[in-house]
Design a protein that fits this description.
Layout: H1 3-35, E1 38-41, H2 50-56, E2 62-65, E3 69-70, E4 75-86, E5 92-94, E6 104-116, E7 119-121, E8 131-135, E9 139-143, E10 146-148, E11 152-156, E12 159-167, E13 170-172, E14 185-187, E15 190-196, E16 199-201, E17 209-211, E18 215-219, E19 222-224, E20 235-237, E21 242-246, E22 249-252, E23 260-264, E24 275-279, E25 282-285, E26 291-296, E27 306-310, E28 313-315, E29 318-319, E30 327-329, E31 332-334, E32 374-376, E33 382-384
Parallel strand pairs: 1-2, 2-4, 3-5, 4-6, 5-7, 6-8, 6-9, 7-10, 8-11, 9-12, 10-13, 11-14, 12-15, 13-16, 14-17, 15-18, 16-19, 17-20, 18-21, 19-22, 20-23, 21-24, 22-25, 23-26, 24-27, 25-28, 26-29, 27-30, 28-31
Antiparallel strand pairs: 32-33
């Protein structure tokens, strides 16, 4: 082959590639746009059943669940990247009877999953660990969903790389089984838990929220057991770690199983870094007997553990100090009658209150900004604080 023939072939090849390149680039840019598919599911299985949709779905797809009651649901997602969302009126996933080996209406094993606008109800298992949703690794985001009458509303098992985010959701109606110890939200030793804009009510013996996460951020929620609730702790941060509680309403019912409302460091197996930061929460004891608003188990914690509790409103009979040692500033005691209208959940301080404007400036704490950026907005959600008040007030509401 001569040098001329070789050069000619190469040139010809480049000509062919020159015409193909724009098409290849267009295809590459177009692929991400056409990969995602929306699969529609109904209780009657038309056009698809939930099981069929999951078999057909590819990573990145969205499964749209039409309104209605879905019976006998028990789904396993393993290393999937999907979004499952209810359309219109919230669809209900029922756990009729005892669940099988998955112990959950929806079991997530790894991957990255988003659940939106779905309700999980009636999960039971032979082992007493039936969960609406069970997380075994991966990243899970839950939005605008509900968990009622489950042994565990949502259960996350130990996986230090797992992350769980819950937004604008509802948890309630723990089964009234003596000795059941069912928690509405039960989170094991995962990497990160973030709960915001959500409502927790009517527990029984178990806790409303239990977390062993390395980082637990619980902000702008309504964690109030109600007059018919019989929970133990409202919040238990069992394994220490970095726990930040800002802007929550935390209420203990008169039928509580334990006087402690917020407990920190109850386990002996702790994370390497530990700190409890509580700012602008409203803690309400609805019973006649005194409550421990916050209890820090110092004997389980390293001596250097930071405990910073500022600008909380403590309503009803109960103690903060000496059950807690640390930096405690701007916390105020009040009675139910000192709130705007406790019977209708108007837990803010009236304009005439002696405690209005009495908080310290939490945004100026050394190395910390613990000032609230929002408030719980009934029935779920977070309403941003639009303007910084001239002087901050203690508790979850600045309005």
């Amino acid at each position: 082959m001569s040098g001329f023939e070789s050069r000619k072939r190469v040139t010809g090849g480049w000509v062919r590639w020159r015409w193909c390149l724009p098409l290849w680039l267009c295809a590459s840019l177009w692929c991400p746009l056409v990969q995602a598919e929306e699969l529609i599911v109904s209780p009657l299985g038309v056009p698809l059943s939930l099981a069929d949709a999951l078999l057909r779905a590819k990573d990145g797809d969205v499964i749209e669940v039409l309104p209605g009651d879905y019976r006998g649901v028990s789904v396993v997602l393993e290393n999937r990247k999907l979004k499952i969302m209810g359309v219109g009126k919230r669809p209900v996933m029922h756990g009729d009877g005892q669940l099988g080996a998955s112990k959950a209406l929806l079991l997530i094993k790894g991957g990255e999953v988003t659940i939106e606008n779905l309700e999980f109800r009636g999960a039971r298992s032979a082992e007493g660990e039936g969960a609406g949703v069970r997380l075994e690794g991966g990243k899970l985001t839950v939005r605008r969903s509900a968990f009622y009458d489950n042994e565990y509303g949502l259960l996350a098992l130990n996986d230090e790389n797992a992350e769980l985010t819950i937004e604008d959701s509802e948890f309630g109606l723990a089964p009234k089984v003596v000795g059941g110890q069912f928690h509405l939200l039960n989170v094991g030793r995962i990497g990160k838990l973030d709960v915001s804009g959500s409502r927790f009510q009517q527990g029984f013996e178990g806790h409303l929220i239990k977390s062993r996460a390395r980082e637990s951020r619980i902000a702008y929620n309504f964690i109030h057991d109600g007059s018919r609730g019989g929970a133990s702790y409202e919040i238990e941060i069992a394994s220490g770690g970095l726990a930040t509680l800002i802007g929550n309403v935390i209420g203990q019912g008169s039928q509580t199983q334990n006087p402690v409302m917020v407990a920190y460091g109850t386990d002996k197996k702790l994370w390497d870094k530990n700190a409890l930061l509580m700012s602008h929460n409203t803690l309400i004891n609805n019973g006649w007997t005194p409550a421990w608003f916050v209890r820090v188990i110092s004997k389980n914690l390293p001596a250097a553990t930071e405990v910073l509790i500022v600008n909380n409103l403590l309503v009803g009979t109960g103690l903060l100090w000496p059950a807690v040692r640390g930096q405690l500033e701007g916390n105020r005691y009040a009675s139910r009658g000192m709130l705007r209208d406790a019977d209708t959940y108007a837990f803010e301080l009236p304009l005439s209150s002696m405690w209005r404007g009495s908080a310290i400036e939490a945004q100026k704490l050394p190395g910390r900004d613990l000032s609230p950026k929002g408030e719980f907005d009934w029935p779920v959600g977070v309403k941003p604080i639009q303007a910084t008040p001239g002087r901050w007030s203690p508790g979850a509401y600045q309005r």
